[in-house]
Amino acid sequence: MDEKRQGQSLIIESIKNNSKKLFIESYGCAMNFSDSEIVASILLKQGFNTTKHLEEADLVLVNTCSIRDKAEQTVRKRLEKYNAVKRINPKMKVGVLGCMAERLKSKFLEEEKIVDLVVGPDAYKDLPHLVAEVEEGRNAVNVVLSKDETYGDISPVRLNSNGITALVSITRGCDNMCTFCVVPFTRGRERSRDPQSIIEEINDLANKGYKEITLLGQNVDSYLWYGGGLKKDFEKASDMQKATAVNFSKLLSLCAKSQPKMRIRFSTSNPQDMSLEVIRTMAKYPNICNHIHLPVQSGSNRILKAMNRLHTREEYFTLIDNIRKIIPDCVISQDLIAGFPTETEEDHQETLSLMNYVKYSFGYMFTYSERPGTLAERKLVDDVPEAVKKRRLNDIIALQLKHSEYRTKQYLNKTVEVLIERESKKSNLHWSGRTQHNVVAVFPKEHYKPGDFVKIKVTNCTKATLIGKAINLTEN
Ligand code: SAH
Ligand code: F3S
Q1: 269 within a domain of the structure (yes/no)
Q2: pLDDT score recorded for residue 115
Q3: Residue 41, domain CATH
Q4: Which residues contact 67 (CB under 8 A, 6 or more apart)?
Q5: What is the pLDDT of residue 15?
Q6: In 134-162, which positions are buried (b, 16+ CB within 10 angstroms) versus exposed (e)?
Q7: What does pLDDT average to in each consecutive run of 10 residues of the chain (476 residues)?
Q8: Boundary-marking domain end, from 142, 174, 191
Q9: Can you give the pTM of this predicted structure?
Q10: Do residues 432 and 440 touch, judged by C-beta distance below 8 A?
Q11: Residue 427 sits in a domain of what CATH number?
Q12: In the prediction, which pLDDT does 459 show?
C-alpha cells in the first residue's frame, strides 16, 4: 500500500518537473482505456507530461482497436492526421499501442513507414527502453505476448478522470476462441491478476475519494487466481494452490467486503461461464450493482455453434431465468452481431425472438465484420450481403429501442439512488449520474456535488434517461 502511495505521489511530483509532452489517445474497449492509464503511469516516470495538444507533443501514442474493420479505419485516419502534424514538427514521434500493434506488428514500420514505435498490449513495461530507442532515432517494436503479465504491480494514473468512477482490470487475454473474434490473437492467453493487488488498488481508489469501480476482463466469470500462470494450466497446479484458489465469485465478495460503501460493477460476463455462485454473491452484497452485461451474439443455436459460443439458446434462457429469480430487478444488457456467415432469415428471427424473451435494457449491436486470421475468416465465407446485414441490424436496433423504452418507463414515479458523475451535457443547471442499474439520470443541481449519492424521484424519462428531482426538497 505505502509503496503504491509513494508511486502515486512521485507521479504527481514528476508532473511539475517533467519536460517532455505525451499526447495519448485511446480507441475501443474499456480495457484499452484502462491500459492507457498504465502506459501513462509508466511514461510519467520517464519525464513525460500529458498534453491535450497534438501540435506540441514530443510523443504521440494511440491505443488501438482491431475488433471490427471500422475501428481500424478510424485509427488509420488518426495516423494520417499525426503524420500531417509530424511534417510540420519532424521531432515528434508516433507510436501505436494495443490490438492493431499486435495484429499488424512491424508492418507499420517496415511497409507503411507511418510510425516510429509499435507496442503490443503485453509489452508496456518495455516502454522506457523502447521510447529511448525512438528518441535516439531508431524505430522500436515489441509485440511479444506474455503468459503472466497482468500489470498488477503498476499503479495506474487516472486519465480524464472525474475522480468518482474508475476501471480496474482483473484479467487479460481470452481463451474462448469465438470464431469471429480477433481478441485471442491480439491479447493472448487468459491470465488473472493477483486478488491482493486488485484489493489494494480498490482501497487506494477509495482513499482518493472514488465511489464506483468497474472490474474489467474479456470474460470476468472465468477469473481464477491460483498463484500465477495461465488459466489453462490450472489442472497442473498443486493441491495447495487449488485449495486456496480465488474464483470470480470469491473476488467479488472480497471487493464488496473491503469497500462496502463503494459501488462495484464488472464487465464483461460470458453466459457459458457465469455461475449461480456469482449471481448469489451479487444478491448478497448491496454494493455490487445489479447489472449484468451478458453478450449473446445470436439467438440461433446453429449460429451460436458456428460462432463457437459454448451455450445454446435454451441454456441462455435458463441463465436469464436464474438471474431474474435471484435478483428480480437485475438489469441485463447485450452485444449482438447481425449477418454472421450463413445466417438465414430464420436465424435472424431467432435473434429477435430471443430479444423479446429477455427484453434487454440496452445493448451494443454490430454487423459482422470479417477479421483476418480468425477461424471464421479461415473456414467460412462472409456470404451475407452488406445490405442484408444492415437491414437485420436495423431490425435489431429498432427492437432494442422499444425494449429500452419499456425498461426505462418502469422507473417512472419511483425513487432511485443516483451517484452524481458530472454536469448534464444538455443543461448546466442539472447533474448527470447513474443508478446502480446503470441507468443515466439527470436532476436539478441544488446544493449537491459530484460524488454525492442522491435519492431522486423519477418524474419523467426519455428512451434511456431518467429525469427527476432530489427527494429532500420535495419532503421539505
Ligand atoms: N468479451 C469481450 C468482447 C470483446 S468484443 C468484452 O469484454 O466485451 C465486444 C463485442 O464486439 C463482442 O461481444 C461482439 O458482439 C462484437 N464483435 C467482436 N468481433 C466482431 C466482429 N468480427 N464483427 C462484429 N462484431 C464483433
Ligand atoms: Fe472475443 Fe469471445 Fe473472448 S467475443 S474476447 S473470444 S469471449
Answers
A1: no
A2: 95
A3: 3.40.50.12160
A4: 28, 29, 99, 181, 182, 183, 369, 371
A5: 65
A6: bbeeebbbbbebbeebbbbebbbbbeeee
A7: 23 64 91 92 92 91 94 93 93 96 91 91 97 96 94 87 92 96 96 95 96 97 88 86 93 98 97 97 98 98 98 98 98 98 98 98 97 97 98 98 97 97 95 97 97 97 95 59
A8: 142
A9: 0.93
A10: yes
A11: 2.40.50.140
A12: 97
Amino acid in the structure at residue 215 = L
Q: How far does the centroid of ligand 1 lie from the alpha carbon of residue 161, in Å? A: 26
Judge whether 24 lies within some domain. yes
Regarding the beta carbon of 337 and ligand 1, being less than 6 Å apart is answered: yes
Report the alpha-carbon angle 84-66-270, nearest 5.
150
Cα–Cα dist 418/440, whole Å: 8
β partners of residue 49: 21
Closest ligand 2 atom to Cα of 270: 7
Cα torsion 167, 168, 172, 178: sign:
negative
Q: Is the CB of 366 under 6 A from ligand 1?
A: yes
Residue 335 Cβ inside 6 Å of ligand 1? The answer reads: yes
Amino acid code (one letter) for 41? S
Angle between helices 345-358 and 313-326 (to 10 degrees): 10
* Residue 109: predicted pLDDT: 87
pLDDT at 156: 87
Q: What is the dihedral of CA 262, 266, 272, 277, to 10 degrees?
A: -10
Asked if residue 219 has its Cβ within 6 Å of ligand 1, the reply is yes
Q: What is the pLDDT of residue 348?
A: 98
Decide which of 142, 174, 198 is a domain's last residue: 142
Q: What are phi and psi of 437, to 5 degrees?
A: -80, 5
Contact 41, 157 (CB under 8 A): yes
Counting from 1 in the atom list of ligand 1, the atom nearest the Cα of 219 is: 1
How far does residue 175's CA lie from ligand 2's centre (Å)? Answer: 8
Residue 141 is classified by DSSP as E
Per the structure block, which three cell numbers stand in for 302?
Answer: 446453429
d(CA 439, CA 249): 24
Please list, in sequence order, all residues whose beta carbon lies within 8 angstroms of the beta carbon of residue 188, skipping any fewer than 6 positions away. 121, 122, 145, 146, 172, 173
Residue 30 belongs to domain spanning: 20-142
